[in-house]
Amino acid sequence: MGSNLSTSETFTSTSAPAVRTAPVSPFNLLTVKILRVRNARKADLHCYVTLWLPTASAEKVRTRTIRNSKNPVWNEAFCYKIDRRVKNVLELKVCDEDTVTRDDELCTVLFDIDKLTVGRTVRVKFQLNPQAREELEVEFTLQNTLDFPDGIITNGVLVARQVSCLEVRVDTGKLKQQSTNPELTFTVNGSHEGSQKILLASGPSLHIIIFHCIINDQTRLDVILPEELAGGNETEKSGVLSFPLNSLPLQKEIILEEDNSFHLCLTARKCSGDLDVRLGFSLCMEEQNFLRKRKKYVPVVAITTTGGGTRSLTAMYGSLLGLQKLNLLDCISYIGGLSGTTWTMANLYEDANWSQKYLEDAIKEARKQVTKSKICCFSLDCLKYYYNDLMERTKEGHNTSFIDLWGLVIESMLHDKKDEHRLSDQRQAVDNGQNPLPIYVAINLKSNYSAQAFREWLEFTPYEVGLLKYGASIRAEHFGSQFFMGRMVKKLSETRICYMQGMWSSIFSIDAMYVWNLAVDSEDFWCRWTRDRVKDIAEEPFLSVNPYEVDTCLFTPSSVFSSTLRDVLTGRPTIAQYPNFIRGFQLHNKYLESEGFSTWKGTVNSMLFNTVIDSFPNKLMETADNELSLVDTGFFINTSYPPLLRSKREVDVILHLNYSGGSQTLPLDQIAKYFSEQEIPFPKIEISEEDRENLKECYVFEEADSPQAPTVLFFPLVNDTFKKYKAPGVERSPEEMAEGKVDVSSILSPFTTREVCFSEENFDKLVKLTDYNVLNNEKLIIQALRLAVARRKQRNY
């Protein structure tokens, strides 16, 4: 509870990269006194105020209800112990109690405790409605404490605090005989596990359950008793035994309850050792070693692709073949993929030396799979296999959804038997620097928000899975396991690559807002009808301002109509969900000043006001406490650019291989706009209207005034000179002209995204087209590489 202050929390401050430092004294005692509301909006208001400070307590507390008053007065005080190194934002919610329906939430004030001065008491008036002179008056007192902290670990964005492993041992021998209730429920709010139940009907009498929680946090263990025992205990609330955990000693067994019914003991120990989540915006050691082995050539060259189902799967083979014929494939350090191109990449990286071999063999196998009938994927035997594999996956502890079924269908479409490969298996293809490093891309979404309003980039390599914005990564084989505060608390088996492909190309996670944005290029609809109503408000008196403070905000709930509309627009039929590996972390007090975070955080001017959630730490960490909801990157922008633009990768040249349907320039235009808003160095994209109507095979974009911006070679999926030339400089004979007729743009094209099966002729045509488009622009590629070499030398001079 907010009023429980006997806990001694201990931390030290660090800065990125993640390191440990010597102890300091960062704690303060915060007293929040809710005084009154003036000029409430309704005369018959049954008003109360709730308080939530999640960095200090997992529980929400509230005042009593004052009935039928426009000027309710409480004078109720609540106390917290806070750590100044984490971002402490207090939520004050004004509510109207309703005995019949759900209580109305009138408004919420978000207040950064960093605005307060230690040793001072200040009365603050929050203007809820200046026109009606409606205001909430609160008194704050911030005092020093003498608590001596342990260390914390931080990268300047996320903070890992000390975690204790709480072992609860219960002997229910006599309780089984006395109670007809089949279970006991144990709850530690704020822990990873939350609540756990012990079934009394069968099994042994001695039970052991584990909770992982922040060490010395202001929390307690609640035990819900069977009704037969509830009456004989002095409990905080009927039927519940509560045990404060604030002063629980480490490594010592404590007997909490010993009577004729059951025996309850607690033992707490500190979770020691290194974190299982790597905090830092640098590249992992394996990737650094890879680059040292791969970097025989300067500059650093990367390939980015776009999705497009079987079309992109097939076309990518042709592009890579063209690069191989030019002896340029060995110059590539990174290949970024999403959606259908991840199918190509996953197939190639099953061979540890794929780029050292002639790609014709891999293309022949792909041709066999793409041209086979897909009806077999829905045979009775396949359906039984899908069912059994999903059941086995569920037994292992993984979440399952329709996206996993889609992954199994992809497996059947591209393989003749079960594919046992996993992402970490691809290390054998890069450990010696023999192939480019593959980077698969997805985005994490938030419930009730469109991808345009909120998204977080995830990258997947054979070494790590990482959230770009937070500088947090885990080993690839640990993706899908459960984490709390940077520590793996439940290890699950590594997910097979087919399930990952289902998530990377999750076309079934579409929402109505995505369709709307395709049809109407306007931000007004979202902002007017579905966007959160948030505005900055002033405090009286004016409080000190630091660069890293969060502005005081007033959040007003949307109307029933807006909420319903928002649910409809952002509702997704299904989505791939995985445990969030940054669960439990808190945000550093100066996280908004972190360069790594700022690179990827939402901006007010970005597409559809790319959510301001990034400036609301409580909402941000609330998202982190939920499971990752992962979808195809194409639901935001159909591109795999972002991981390649991480500053530590120092990519000089990017070959943009575009395989999208519809407008070929749209993904490039969108990502250029996005990078401009994020202030990420990227060349200006200038293509004349005439060219946009009749695109050439290759365009080069560079930014002479920005040495940090990569040179981009853009290869749209077009049939230009290939119509008349079967090879660079070799014209087609009249008999060969039919082979140059490859329709990749019309609505009657055999290569639309919905097509999952191509004829052998069409497969060959598409591979030859993309192969030719690369070969025919050899001079532009070589020229761009030479220019990039010169620019790198100039930059390093």
TrEMBL record:
It is an enzyme of class 3 (hydrolase). It is found in: Cytoplasm, Cytosol; Membrane. One of its GO terms (molecular function) is calcium-dependent phospholipase A2 activity. Pfam families: C2, cPLA2_C2, PLA2_B. Its EC number is 3.1.1.4. It catalyses: a 1,2-diacyl-sn-glycero-3-phosphocholine + H2O = a 1-acyl-sn-glycero-3-phosphocholine + a fatty acid + H(+). Residues 11-126 form the C2 domain. Keywords: Calcium, Cytoplasm, Hydrolase, Lipid degradation, Lipid metabolism, Membrane, Metal-binding. This is Phospholipase A2. It comes from Chloebia gouldiae (Gouldian finch).
